[in-house]
Amino acid sequence: IEFIHSLKIIHRDLKLENFFVDENENISLGDFGVAKQQLEGASVGTMVGSYHTIAPEIISALPQSTKSDIWSLGCVFYLLMTGQHPFKAKNWLQLSKDICKCLYEPPNTEPKIDLLIKNMLQLTPTDRFSAKQVVLQLQSIIFPEEPTSDFVEPIKLDKITKLQKLCDSIDQTKQISAEDVKFFHKMSFGAFNRWDSMQLYYLGKVLGKIGFIQLGLAILHFLGFQTDQFLYFATGFTVYCNFEPIRAFS
């Protein structure tokens, strides 16, 4: 959407049914049958759009712009987050009145998402977010900034090799070098919730092998692993620890 808007193209019929997902879960935008290019000083033309996502300026026969798409996209976001349309009157007359007065119930989801939808469903087109602003806001929601004082670059997938080698190198006396301690210290402030299953498995295996039981449980508790992440971690952890991690964790 940001790309077509950069070309001054208005889709004019953004709705959930026009987003397509392939077998690899890639999302594509389709149905450009009523799309128009917004030329300088020219009218886009006829009233088009879908019942629940049409922008108020289109109903009022005012000039359309890329911001009309942003309104429609805000309606799609609202539907995805709540399962309902923001404007859901059963007859066109009442629906058009609600849209033109911007009368809808707040979605009451996450505060940042509610604010994003609010900025997309502004009655005045110039007050709405642009597509680029929507992208930036979504990125800030999905990937929130880490505190600068504690931030450490997330460990990349190829670090699993180092974890595996480290696990194999630790002998049965549970000795660990100063360099390895530094490595674990760095990892303890990393974004564990972004690790894949094998990274979690080997991390648990290494911590279990060197006897870092308390550290392992602290990681699980403070970083709030999901159930599947916990199981991968615990599988590796119990390889070298004679206790039941789920009972100890509880």
TrEMBL record:
MF GO annotations: ATP binding; protein serine/threonine kinase activity
Domain of life: Eukaryota
Keyword Transferase included in the entry's annotation: yes
RNA-binding keyword on record: no
Record-linked PROSITE patterns: PROTEIN_KINASE_DOM, PROTEIN_KINASE_ST
Cellular component annotations (GO), alphabetically ordered: nucleus
Chain segments annotated as coiled-coil in the UniProt record: none
Family annotation (InterPro entries): Kinase-like_dom_sf, Prot_kinase_dom, Ser/Thr_kinase_AS
Domain Protein kinase, residue spans: 1-142
Keywords for this protein: ATP-binding, Kinase, Nucleotide-binding, Serine/threonine-protein kinase, Transferase
Name recorded for this polypeptide: Protein kinase domain-containing protein
Naturally occurring in which organism (per UniProt): Trepomonas sp. PC1
